[in-house]
Amino acid sequence: MNQLINDPSNVVADALRGMADAHPELRVDHENRIVFRGDAPVQGKVGLVSGGGSGHEPLHAGFVGPGMLDAACAGEIFTSPVPDQIMAATKAVDGGAGVLHIVKNYTGDVMNFEMAAEIAAAETGVEVVAVVTDDDVAVQDSLYTAGRRGVGVTVLVEKIAGAAAGQHRPLAEVADIARRVNANGRSMGVALSSCTVPTAGKPTFDLPDGQMEVGIGIHGEPGRRRAPLATAAEIAEMLVGPILGDLDFTGGDGVIAFVNGMGATPLIELYVVYHEVAAILAKAGITVARSLVGPYITSLDMAGCSVTLVKTDDEMLRLWDAPVRTPALRWGA
Amino acid sequence: MNQLINDPSNVVADALRGMADAHPELRVDHENRIVFRGDAPVQGKVGLVSGGGSGHEPLHAGFVGPGMLDAACAGEIFTSPVPDQIMAATKAVDGGAGVLHIVKNYTGDVMNFEMAAEIAAAETGVEVVAVVTDDDVAVQDSLYTAGRRGVGVTVLVEKIAGAAAGQHRPLAEVADIARRVNANGRSMGVALSSCTVPTAGKPTFDLPDGQMEVGIGIHGEPGRRRAPLATAAEIAEMLVGPILGDLDFTGGDGVIAFVNGMGATPLIELYVVYHEVAAILAKAGITVARSLVGPYITSLDMAGCSVTLVKTDDEMLRLWDAPVRTPALRWGA
Amino acid sequence: MTATVDTAALTAWVREFGRLIAAGRDLLTELDSAIGDADHGVNMDRGMTAVLAALAADPPTTPADVLKRTGMTLVSKVGGASGPLYGTAFLRMAAAAGAADALDAPGYAKVLRAGLDGVVARGKPAAGDKTMYDALAPAVDALDEALAAGRPLGEALRAALRAAEQGRDATIPMVARKGRASYLGERSAGHQDPGATSVTMLVSAAATVLGGD
Amino acid sequence: MTATVDTAALTAWVREFGRLIAAGRDLLTELDSAIGDADHGVNMDRGMTAVLAALAADPPTTPADVLKRTGMTLVSKVGGASGPLYGTAFLRMAAAAGAADALDAPGYAKVLRAGLDGVVARGKPAAGDKTMYDALAPAVDALDEALAAGRPLGEALRAALRAAEQGRDATIPMVARKGRASYLGERSAGHQDPGATSVTMLVSAAATVLGGD
Ligand SMILES: Nc1ncnc2c1ncn2[C@@H]1O[C@H](COP(=O)(O)OP(=O)(O)O)[C@@H](O)[C@H]1O
Ligand SMILES: Nc1ncnc2c1ncn2[C@@H]1O[C@H](COP(=O)(O)OP(=O)(O)O)[C@@H](O)[C@H]1O
Ligand SMILES: [Mg+2]
Ligand SMILES: [Mg+2]
Ligand SMILES: [Mg+2]
Ligand SMILES: [Mg+2]
């Protein structure tokens, strides 16, 4: 697959340079590969740190700014960042109110954030609470496994927890809200093509025309099963069905419905899918309170989409609507 | 190529349904395939109508809303809308101050908007002025040809003219500003893959791995020449070089630098390109006043990017910074 | 003996054109893939399907009626470059047909030339620009010439068809100066123009349907 | 006669591991493509290249120093699952090596077991989860057993390698319960675990470098 890059092993560093060039309101620590909001640390505010492997852009660096993250640590492509980065970010965003780590549930991410928190606690005394997102219903949850992956809900957790932190709420409360969003969120995704990790140089898996992978994550991994390519309406059923089967989304203050592109799927197709999702929700008696359509948590140049639903309450909606000013999500500011 | 659609011939209608579902603040006329801002017509404001073939999303419907367009007419994929649609949109957004048509320079678009304006003038007396964008330096300009294509600058024309209209300036002035942005804008693009028109069902052209098309437009057409795939730095040179050779971008109040994705190129690659563009501009002594990075004017599922530069003045920058609230471009509101 | 082209004959012509477009849809789109945006067949077929449906639903009563409704439908259904071009052509033909109940051979030739003038007014093509003009203009000229030489309409239309085909084929080596193909510059050479191909079908339909002397 | 594993020998072990990782980089990434995210070879190679550079730039002076710096470098360069797992393993090995100038065979075996314990503490793998544990645990057990039976270190390490290889191969039919491969459910069966493959290289490096009785 043709890619717009220089050296395959420099993609992350090069992209961070581009982010620094394009967004002077951010501060980029190129050595540690951390993107900070320019005015971090904000005194008295809980600092929000997230991060993970690169290749999911705009997640996470595109969500740094007032109303959302204070710092994002960029790992290599699909490889979680290392404890040094996370520690450096944690120290730099601590404004005296503690730091929340938002971690997607992958073995690597969880362990690296864990080691960073251990060292941070020992070395600096910064209070750190970690919230792990695990919303992917394609993966069976069990005590004996790695559990569910953290996918689309991560974007909504970062937005909503970011708004709570922006109101200078205490760390425990911000963490609670983050956990509440995650607990009320479910996702599922489908791939219509593989992606190509630049250093690997060829697609992670072969997917012939007319086939798709159902139940994928965001690391180019094959899904739970391969199936013949279906229509947008059928795919919407395949994604929304298991989500609704896993949690009761009726009642409450409606849902945030999020149709996410995996990186190579154009917006016109995402809107086709959104319509089918909206139709299924309407039939199921589920009210859509807010929506989000676009590529926000991607898997390099994979074609496909994921659907995330979060069951909301009034407070979550107010925090969702609060002003945010980041490269990839911006309103009210 | 696998696509997330239902029936290939219903893609445009289905996507418009999705837009209506996701954006209740817009009003969609499904019969005429027009997306309106919900409160159109705005009395005393010049109405802005654009439109064109579909497949370039978010252009144009994603730019409908306060501070930008009043209506967007969606044609079939890569086929300009028809006069009926354009007339209907024109009548519906006229708030007594006349209507500006923003037309990309393609034979089909120009002729259909022209016919609509002829009929509108004869039938309704709405004052219509058309501004045609033609910023693509890959195409040699000449009196004897169709002239240059309208590409990336269209997004910036719609934003800046939209802000001027939002200040209730008269039609002639809004049209002047739109023309000034176009006259000061230049673009060039590259494709790393073809795209697939759903009704055609297969890629418009074959592009083997390791090859690219330089000087493409936004309709999946091959470029001016085929070349071996190059690095992001080399590609940035190939795109920015002809742009700088066509217009002097030094001085003034700096440029708006816009790196646009063609639809299937992920954001991480666009930032890699943006860094190279920024480096070339810095070396050439050109100040970047504002930047925009993302897929804003696309060509279905084509991989690749385009670069647009607009030489600005103080007024253009103030209009650029003015609040805008559309599905795809939003700030300050 | 002068052939008479009445409402039924013109309707049959338009229907045959629609049939040829439907049959040639993939070919036209294929040609448009090489030097355009892969939609000419789809565009024309969408338009002509709507035209045939409109004419079937409410049969036209005069030659001008056939032509006007064909033009209006094409304008409002096709879009792109071909919508206004074919639409304007048929609308101009309708105007040229006036109130007549039927056209004689010179009358039909005048109608066709009015269509060509419509294309010129709308698209400003010149000879050699690699557009539908390069097939339609020689066809209209050949028709006039053959009729002026006293040939019957059928024979004259077959001459027009040969001229259209030659004009269509002559677009292959041309470097486009109008339409999307012009963006390709030198790379447009070596490909047959889609619009020249579809307009040859229009002439071919006339030769088939109106050519039975 | 008890073999002595000193600073130089441990350094040689780590260097040989780095060589095997570099040579196996594409294989490891290939294995990770099938059931993971196509980066295990790239991750380990980035880490071990940094380790070898660090050890070369400033040669370590004690066994613990070799192991600690290897662990720290892996933690700060690898990321992903393998960074903390290998990093913790080496850091625990360093702690087990203590202040000794050299390790005898049982001492080396104790160090290796401490590494295994580190993997368990960090990743909580159980036997049959289809992870590096399934190759490393049998290797450490085999080493202990052979030494307890009075075999010399070289022979014992060769037994450990055979156990690691068997453990690695045994991951093929397993359905993963830990790491990314677990997301595939039943589809993870039929593929060899990348981490079990790289950890077998670690044991192989020991058999090669420390095995000359
Ligand atoms: N200015 C023009 N004058 C005459 N014919 C033109 C002109 N521009 C384009 N054409 C014709 O239109 C055809 C393309 O039609 P179509 O593909 O339906 O529209 P679009 O180019 O908008 O996709 C071309 O092959 C050419 O024959
Ligand atoms: N919980 C765990 N315990 C032990 N080993 C694990 C665990 N999770 C993953 N692994 C090992 O890590 C390997 C994958 O490493 P790597 O590809 O570098 O990291 P990532 O999965 O983050 O991309 C797996 O093949 C497996 O052997
Ligand atoms: Mg990884
Ligand atoms: Mg077209
Ligand atoms: Mg076309
Ligand atoms: Mg991996």
UniProtKB/TrEMBL annotation, chains A, B:
GO molecular function ontology, one term from the record: glycerone kinase activity
**What GO CC terms are in its UniProt record?**
cytosol
One example of a Gene Ontology biological process annotation: glycerol catabolic process
Q: Which InterPro entries match?
A: DhaK_1, DhaK_dom, Dihydroxyacetone_Kinase
| Keywords assigned by UniProt, alphabetized | Glycerol metabolism, Kinase, Transferase
Pathway recorded for this protein: Polyol metabolism; glycerol degradation
Q: Where is the DhaK domain?
A: 7-331
Q: Which reaction does it catalyse?
A: dihydroxyacetone + phosphoenolpyruvate = dihydroxyacetone phosphate + pyruvate
Could you say which enzyme class this protein belongs to? Answer: transferase
| Entry EC no(s) | 2.7.1.121
Question: Whom does it interact with, and what assembly results?
Answer: Homodimer. The dihydroxyacetone kinase complex is composed of a homodimer of DhaM, a homodimer of DhaK and the subunit DhaL.
**Entry protein name:** phosphoenolpyruvate--glycerone phosphotransferase
What is the scientific name of the source organism?
Answer: Actinoplanes nipponensis
The gene that this protein is the product of is: dhaK_2
